[in-house]
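Q: Structure for this?
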Amino acid sequence: MADVIEVGAARKDAPPPAGGKGRRGVTERGSRATPYLFLAPYLLLFLTFGLLPILFGVWLSVHQWDLQLPNRPFVGLDNYKDLFDSESAIYGDWWSSVKATAIFTVFSVPLLVVIPLGLALLLNKSFPGRTFFRAVYFAPYVLGVAVIGLLWRFLLDANLGLVNRLLGAVGLPADTPWVTDVPWAWVSLVGVTVWWTSGFNAVIYLAGLQDISPELYEASRMDGANAWQRFRNVTVPGLRPVLLFVLTTTILASANVFGQSFLITQGAPGEETRTVVWRIVDEGLRDNDAGRAAAMSIVFALALTVISLINFRFFRYRED
Amino acid sequence: MIQNEMSRRRLLGLGVGLGTAASLTLAGCGGGSATKSGGPAAGNGGKDYTGPKVDLKLWNGFTGGDGDIFKKLVQQFNSEHQNIAVAVTTYQWEDYYSKLPGAVSSGNGPDIAVMHMDQLATFAARGVITELDDVSKALELNEGDFAPTVWTGGIYNDKRYGIPLDMHPLGFYYNKAVMQKAGLDPNKPPTNKEEFTAALVELKKSGIQGFWVSPFQFTGGMTFYSLLHQWGGTLFDDQVQKATFNSDPAVEACTWLVDMIKQGYSPANVGQDADYLALKAGKNAFNFNGIWQINDIAKDPAAQIGVAEVPQLGTQKAVWANSHNFTIVKQRGADNNKISGAKVFINWLSEHSLDWAKGGQVPARKAVRESAEFKAIKDVSTLAPELEYAAFPPATPGLGEVLLTFYNSFNEAALNKKSPKQALDDGVAKANKQLEDNRKKYGN
């Protein structure tokens, strides 16, 4: 930073660049508009496809809005009130979906933060076949949710599935209802998700690990630090920005879970594994109530924003 | 590496965001009020079409073997009609119904849409499809040509919106090899409760759980739907104002099914499709499944699956059924030529519904059903008599979500999360709220 200022200072005495200071709003770095022009392509996309839909969503949420019906009365905050009024038709479904999403997020996030870190530490060592294993652990992530959903639904079937058959073969109970009863359904959903997406987080960790300077490890080794101390005092601090990124994106991704429960458990038993995003899709596209769906989305988005802010706060605090 | 991955993810996220936003804005801009009805006046109700060449888009959800047969019929129609070209697009039914409204209001919808009977009222009330009274007049169709429920099911607010193409009831599939192994006559599948339970007892003796009860809509929920009517119950009252699927007969029917699991005639926690897969694999003897599975069992004769009418387990015969209907979609700029062309197509295909029967569906037209050619189509014609007592879902807008509540309450009972009575009571309480919501929304 200091270097830049000095350079700038030195140039004050130098003759002005050709055509420089004459025009208003033009500095030696170019027009004031320049940064905005650089921003413009993204900003335009963001405004059109980010901000505008969000505002439109807020507008929808205060109406009873059906895409086809001509009558779209303004209902004020009724759509929001319905979410908190135990007498409304959607109250039960909404809160059971919130509960389902919360359970899934609470159990999947810690696993998706820790297991990939362990994987990355292992894959960062040099051993024969390292590239092969890196590919192997990343491979499931390449598959679409439809593929893994159907695959695991059949593997986990209580009566016909391979998982129960293998468990039976080694003398364990062979009638576990993996996809039709809780808590087993949660074990399945979290397990499948960890298997499916760990590779992605591991790759990010791996990149972070490779950014940590080897000199730091060398120096700590010279000072007599053992493996745990090196991990605790070199690896973890070095990974902090990466950890923040992984934690934040994993919470958001887990809270947005939809395909896995839609395909593997189909919401069973009853509606216990129906998640918030599924609920919103049904409300808006199946039951044609875009107003309620928008209200749900906004409440959900606000909740996630608060969680992310806490998350950032926590990490910044640690940094100070 | 990290750079690549992150930008990839961001790109993906952006792509998804763009797609969603675009479809939302499109759907949002193209409000339903912009759609115009060009319906009844156009053409002569489908007798013929002599105008300039029209291209018609048709959407359906025939993803199984029936889809190929449908496409062949369309090819034949196109070659016989020089000035009408029909192009077919197929989606999964679930996607289909959520895609259609958005596509129509953004002007990208089809001209002709195939729809289930219980969806007609919803889409009619929401102004997606247009009246077809003149088509039924031109085709000289009346109630006598169809099963009465199917015919009246196409009417909403005294106007006709759907021309029935076919009907698809639940059928009774049984594994002959498994029956034989248990000492049962594979050519005499049970037809009533006594025979049915006696057969299950014999099967159990030879170590077969003979009647797998699925907790899911396909097919356990539809089985319960059938039995509820067999026991003399109904899902809703006559005006579809109140849900009635917690009546005594309904609870008894549900209890009977759940007891199948408790008595060991069915395993617990049957997964989606596991009942049918187990039937084909010889682990299950009896399964009530849709008529559309006839195509599937025909592919695998070695499995020795027989087809019969669903046995009478309650006090009367009854079976779940639904019907495919043709509808004409309202367009923003109405093109009368297209509408008359579409009517010609519907007329033509309705007349060729015998060929459609080969796709594993019972033709809607009585005359075709009674023809010798239809009776010669194995298995499909076996199930045709069921239509005399089939229980079709009522035609009320917004009923889809209420039916799902019904199926979910059975799910809770079949998975032993609640007693049948409790599950159905809870379901009815929720269904009544949904019905009330729908009345407010659709104003009836």
